[in-house]
Amino acid sequence: MKIKYLKMKASFILTLFCVLQVSALETLAQKFNIDLDGAKVTHVIEQIKQQSDYKFFYKDDVINEEWQVNIHSDSEEITNVLKQLFKNLPVSFVIQKKQIILKKKNQFRLLKLVVSIYSVILMVR
Known about the structure:
By secondary structure, this protein is α+β, with helices and mostly antiparallel strands. It contains four helices and five strands.
């Protein structure tokens, strides 16, 4: 009886692990196709939202409504798209699961420190 219970428990844990891995790979494998010239940054952000489940978080003063960019991505991962989008702009980003946090570059160091401390606290538990 005890061996049967252990086998069931191991099967459940293995199945759960596989499901989580597939979910993580699906998130990482998501590709974006954006081909825009002279587009407002806010429009590009909307395009990313339409092609994915990502949510953007930022204060109004982080993104200037008049900023325009040229962006060309063909089946690119989100990190590469965002690097291209903010390459010449004073904006940094952090991706946490399906959330993208935008900050002014000079504020980014503090956010990165807070995220690092939070990660360490979670690892200690």
